[in-house]
Task: structure prediction
Amino acid sequence: MPGSLSDLVADLALANRILAHEGVLDAFGHVSVRHPADPSRFLLARSRAPLLVEPNDILEFTLDSEPTRPAKVALYAERVIHGAVYQVRSDVIAVCHHHAPSVLPFCVAGKPIVPVFHLGAAIGEAIAFWDQHDEFGDTNLLVTKPEEGRSLARALGRHAVVLMKRHGATVIGGGLRELVSRAIFLCQNADYQMRAITLGGAPPLHPGEIKRAGAVNLMPIVVERTWEYWSMRLKAAGALPPRARRMRKRK
Ligand code: MN
Result:
């Protein structure tokens, strides 16, 4: 576990880049973490492509998804997703919203993603589905209003994942590293499920298998091993985030 706020901020910048490097996030999507000392706040980057996020981009927000200090930088339009989930799920420590190519076909078709291999058990036995049109009619499909965020959080319920019709997915975690592994395994699972369907079928794991394999996925030794592996892949690509600057350079 990170020992201080600056360690957590560094981890959040790293999580942004890992999720981008592994194909979960692209120019869009975002990842946040609840403030370790104040559960009524969370940390999220300013509006920037996740692969470029660095510690100095990380800002603090209230659960209304407003910055705790006036921000001179652009903010993510869909940041209400994060605050809305933290408000209703005290067990949630980290949130990721994304539009990964592997999950989008399921979001378009309205078909469930089910765990089809052992690591896919990280998503749980069932995931939720939300269609913004059901409650809000014709929108631009961005989740920008507080009531849209609350509706999405209601649909998420006690699940770990909610698919968003024709849009993407929102994934939660009991920790930042747990969230990162779940988000990546969700994408791998969706990819395998789709390919298995073309071979004739993609039956889900048995409920008992999902419970047991899911528990293995949450073991610290597994979570730390995947975090180190994805960090090393990022390092090999020369894309690790810089360290936080204490003082901004004069221009
Ligand atoms: Mn989105």
In short: Residues 45 and 127 are 27 Å apart (CA to CA). The first helix runs from residue 5 to 21.
